[in-house]
User: Fold this.
Amino acid sequence: MDSTPSPSSSSPFDLVSSALGRYIPSGGAAAAAAAGPAEAEGNHAIGRRVPDNSAVGGQDQILGAVNLDRNLRITRCNLDAPVFEGLDAVVGSPFVDLLPPGDVPTVTRRLRQVLETGEAHVARIQRLRRRDGSELVVSLSILPAAVPHEGLTVSVIAMATRLHLYAAETAIGTSLDIGETAQSLAESLLAWGDVAAVDLDFAVWTGEGVTDRAQGRIRLRRAALVPDRAWPEGYVTTGDDLPSDASRLLAQAVQRNDAPQAIVIPDREAVERVLGSPRVMRALVPGDRSAGVACIPLVLDGAPPVVLGVAEVWRRADSPFRDSELFDLQELVARTVHHVDLARQHQREHTQVLALQRRLLPRSGGDTVEIASVYQPATPDSAGVGGDWVNSFPLSDGRTALVVGDVVGHGLGAAATMGQLSMEARALLSAGLAPDEVLEHLDETVSLLDDADSGLAAGYSALGSTCCIVLYDPVSRRVALSSAGHLPPVLVSPDGHAGPLPVSPHPGLGAEFALREPFDVHTFDVPPGSLLALYTDGLVEDPALSIDEGIARLAQVVSTVHPWDTLQQAARHVVSAMAPVRHRDDVTLLLARMIGYRKGDTATWRLPARDDAPARARAQVSALLRQWRTRGDTLDNVSLLISELVTNAVRFATGPITVRLIRAGHGLLCEVGDTGNGRPRLSRGGLLDDGGRGLYVVHRLTTRWGVRWTDTGKVVWAEVAR
Assistant:
């Protein structure tokens, strides 16, 4: 084997090799040979399991290094320590020849992943196969070479039992994802057997609390299973629920006398007696060969103790579990069960936040705009689900509000703030406020939430959160947009031209007083067929690109959406093209295809504020409704409604009066605008009191009505069913 590194090289292989002298026991291979055949035989006999201290000459660990090319063939090797004797690490041979056949797919996938991503794969428990068929348990790390085309360096550490337990606990605690945590535990348990599985209580899997329940109600789900291979038909694999009989039997086995404890079933005959049912045998026994199993409960200390699930380690019947090995298995599970519980708690928070965010996603668009949205949470091992949200909803005057926001941080604090800002924005927009006015209120809310004296912050700050509000008017076919530090929406015109809307930058919500600037309102024409994309930064952020390049790439991808494409499928395609791999931040996208009203479905009149205005408005509206072939009772109701609203405008306002009628879906939307700033209100007048009687007529004739404010006054709107 070539163990002479180039003196001028500083590759990971050479760095690992230079450290070997600190761990190779004195005497090297000669000392191992002097140990005699009896010790060598004993070492091979336990080669499938974690080696005892005697197997490594009294040392806790031995380092080794193997260099691979991009075809995963060995180019250099330094496995000179005695513990690695019997490993056929020949230069030019495939590295996978050192692996048990069942482990080849998993390790190959990891090697390829490091080659593709350049991210190291550190400290995973792995078995290596000696030429005599015995196996050596090592901690295996895969390191990318300093120069990508040079391949990989694989470092191995042959460990004693205590160090194996420590390394396994360290590896298991690296993720907050419940599935990855269970998988790490199963991979560590595999050092003691041929097959390892982790079955968790369904409540643990979903993140709910686990309590002491009747055994008949226990439900187990397989959370992890190693190694990767094709399993017999009927065998429970990862993600499957165990049959109810199997769940009950496992629970009864590990909870004898109401005390959770490990058990060992030594061979297939005993397994058949315990399980009884052929269906349960097919579900739990991984093959036809005679094998024994050790079942170790995952127990949280408490009064009473709580069982989170069961770990099972299967081994050939001709290699029974020793008491010391069972103690080691119990210790490993006991030392790592708190990681499983932490992952459960994280899963619970993740599920709660995800449910809140999905509830905020828009359900559908109206008659004038088509809506589609995609939300992808951050990968499970990130800091947690963030505070991204999108929302869309019709306003009372026929316009549609589109809102996208990104709250700083992750977890429940961000989710609570996200929900509050989203609901506040919806309420203010529904009340008729302009986008810039809504952002002013949200800015104040974020500042108040960050005030420690308010008691609402609870150690979480939302300063710097962003929001963008777009109001689409289907009559004028324009959008009004205000942004608080958010990335600009991308607009695709009907001719295919795409690009971000020119929006002036803003420091975001809750900025310091000295940095605060007024929120601008930008207006843009959006002809029918235009496509608007609102998103959060997780969609366009890429370490290899600037944020402007990411936005330009998004514009290019969105421009490929065909007018006939189903919008929801198009949204999924855009997200998959922009964020195809695992991501550390939420990805949120809202696509809105602008349809607008047809010109024949709207009519607008401007009338002077004179006494004859109600009669003129009534005549013009009646003529239009006859042209629209409106039913007689609806025609009379709308004519009376317009007459009352115009009369009210003449009496209490000045300046010209604007009357607008919109045919929308199954209703008619009537609007009367004036220059007054008073708000009409229903009042409980007396029998001879004329004030307020017109509004009672409006209230009786409509399905709903209200007021919105404009730059020049107000608009009273009302909706009538056709």
